[in-house]
Amino acid sequence: MSRREAPLNRVVMALSLVATATWLALPLASVAPNRIVPGTAHTATDLLGWPLALLACLPLVALMALSRRLDRVRCHLALALVLLLLMALPGWLAIASQWLVDPELPQARLGIGAAWWLSLFWLSLMLIELRSRLALVGWRAALLPVVVATAWWLQGAWLGSLALGQELDGRRGDFLEAVVDHLLLVGGAVGASLVLGALIALAMRQSPRVERLGFAVLNFLQTIPSLALFGLLLAPLAWLAARFDWLSAIGVSGIGWAPAFLALLGYSLLPMVRNTHVALSEVDPGVLEAARGMGMGRGQVFRQVRLPLALPVVIEGVRITTVQAIGLTAVAALIGAGGLGSFIFQGLGQAAMDLVLLGALPILAMALVADALLGALARRLDHRRLASPGGAP
Amino acid sequence: MIELKGVTKRFGDETAVDAISLTVKPGELCALVGTSGCGKSTTLRMINRLIEHDEGEIHIDGRPIREFDGRLLRRRIGYAIQSTGLFPHWTVARNIGLVPRLLKWPAARVRERVEELMGLLGLPVDQFADRYPAQLSGGQAQRVGVARALAADPDILLMDEPFGALDPITREGLQAELRDLQSRLRKTIVFVTHDMDEALALADRLVVMKAGHIVQQGTPLALLRAPADDFVASLLGGDDRGLKEAAITQVAERMLPLSPRLLPQARVHRDATLRQALAVMFREHADRLAVVDDEAMPIGELSLRRIVGAGRDGSGES
Ligand SMILES: Nc1ncnc2c1ncn2[C@@H]1O[C@H](COP(=O)(O)OP(=O)(O)O)[C@@H](O)[C@H]1O
Ligand SMILES: [Mg+2]
Question: ABC transmembrane type-1 domain location, by residue (chain A) (predicted)?
Fold first, then answer.
C-alpha cells in the first residue's frame, strides 16, 4: 500500500445521516391561526410529499458518499454542498408559508419546527468540521457565515408570515432599544473590567501577597450564582441611591442597569485578571533578558516587549469575558436592566417560543460575532504563529 | 579591556562566583568553559551589570563599571545569548536596529547600519529584513542575534553559549564565520560555552571554571599541553587531547620545504589542520604528504615524524 488513501470522515458521515433522519421524521414547521391556539405540526414529507422530500435529501446522500473518502477535492465539494443546504434553509420556510398559511387569516403564523433548527445545527457542525479539515482561516473562514447570512437576508421577503417576524413587527422600537441596551451593558462591563482588571493584574505583579488575596476574592465572586449576586447588590445599591441624590439622578437604584453592571463587572474581572496576569508573567524570559541586556530600561521593556507580547493573551481574556457577558446580560433582564433578555423572559412568561427566539437569536449571533472577531484579532497580534504554513509575509 | 579582580557573587547562601580574577585584553577572544552551573553565565552577566557583583572590582577600559549607568553600559556592550532572545513581534531589521535606536541614531543611519550588518552576517536584506523571528531557522536566528549584538559597533561582545542550541554542522559553520568576523573586527569577546571543541576552535585565551573558581587559564595550546589537574585534563578530552591539539595546529606550521626526494601522492592543503593531515595519512596508508596551495601546486611536504616528533618543543628535525 504505497498510495495514501483519504480516510473515511466519520463526522461528516454521521452528521449527514442524522440530518437525513431529522429531516424526514421531525416537524419542519407548524401553523397556527393566531398566537393563542397551539399550531399543527407538519413534517417535510407532509409538506412536500414523499418524492419531493426524498429528492431534497439528495445533497445529504451525496455528502455521505463524499465522506467515505474525503480528500481535498471532495472536501471542497462537500463544503459547497453544505453551504448550499444552509443557504436554502429559509427557502423551506418560505414554501411552508406559501402552502400552509391561509392568506385570509392575517393573524396566522408559521412556527419553525424541530427539523429546521436541528438541520441548521447539524449543517453548522459539518461546516465547522470541513472548515477545520481545509484549515481555512482569516477572511476565507469569515466569508462562510457571511455568504449564508446574505442568502438568508435575500429570502427574507417571502417570510412575512413567520411568527418570529410577526413578533418583531410588533416591537421594532423595543427590539432596537433592547439590542442597544444589551450592547451598552456588555461593552461597558467589559471595558471597565479590562481597565480595572489590568490595574489589578499590575498590582498583583508587585507582591505575591496581593496576588493571593486578589485571586481568592475573584474566585469567590465567580462562585456566586448570577441571580444571587443581583440580589446581594439590590439592598446596598438602593441604600446608596437613597443616600446620594446624584447617584439616583444618573439612574442608580437597587434594580435596573446599576446592579447588572456591577454584577457583570464582578464576573468579568476573574477571567480578565487571570489572562492579563498570566500573559504578563509568561513572556519568554530569554526575550526579557535580551531586552535588558541590550540596555532597555524597565519602562521600555514593559511597553515595547512585555506588553505587546502579552497582548494576544489579554485579548483572549477579553474574548472570553465578552462572550460570557453577552450571555449573562440576558439574565440581567430579570432585575430590569433591559436588553434582549427581557424578550426571553416575556416569551417564557407567555409561553410564546417565538418571542423567546427573538431575544435568544440575536444574543447567539452577538456571541458568535464577538467570539470570531476577537479570536481573529488575538491571532493577528500573535507573531509566534507566523511560523505556520501560509503565514509568510 | 576587561579586568575582574577578586569578583564574588552570592545567591543567598550559595556562592556562584568565588573571588575570580581575569583580564581580557583588547581584541582578544576569551572563552569561559566548565561544567554546567559553575558560574560562567553569572560571570558574564556581571560584566554588563545584568547582575551586580557583591565583592571585588570589575573595570572596563580602566574604569570601574559601577561608575557607569547600567543601561548606558549595556548599550555599549554587545550581548548574544543561546535562546537568541529576539523579539518575536519585531521584524529581523527592527530587532537588529534595537540598540542604535536606543542610542537615538537618526533613522537613515540605523537602516544603513542594519543593512550593512545583514550583509556581514550573510542575511540577504530583501529576503530577511521583513521576516519575523518565527520564520527563521535556528542558525539564521542566531545570526540575527549576533548582528543585533554588533549593531552599535561595541568594542566588547559578551556571548553566552550562542551556538549551543544548534546542530553540529550549523554550529561549525557559525564558528568559522565568527572566527572570520573576529579576524576583521577585532572585538574584545567573552564567550561562554560548555563545548570544549568550540572553545578550542575560537579562543585566544581559555578560562576553565569549576564551582565558581577559575582552575586554569591560558592559551588553548598551553592548557592542552599542561593541564593543571585531572579535572582540566578530562574536560579537555583526556587521551583525546593530542588529537585536539592537532586539530588547532595548522599544516603550514609544521611543513618543510620541498626536498629533492620523490613527492608523495597523498596531499593535504596548506590551511588544513594536523588532525586532518593525520586522517589523510591514515586513509592513504602514507607517512609522508605533499602540502599544496589553493591552485593544488605542491609547496612543501609533511612527514608523520614531523607531525608527532616536533610536537613537544617545536624544534624537531631541521
Ligand atoms: N538569579 C539566580 N538566582 C539564584 N541562583 C542563581 C541565579 N543565577 C544563577 N544561580 C546559581 O548560580 C550558579 C551558577 O549559575 P550559572 O552562572 O548560570 O552557571 P553556568 O552558566 O556556568 O551554567 C548555579 O548554581 C545557579 O543555580
Ligand atoms: Mg549558563
Answer: 179-374
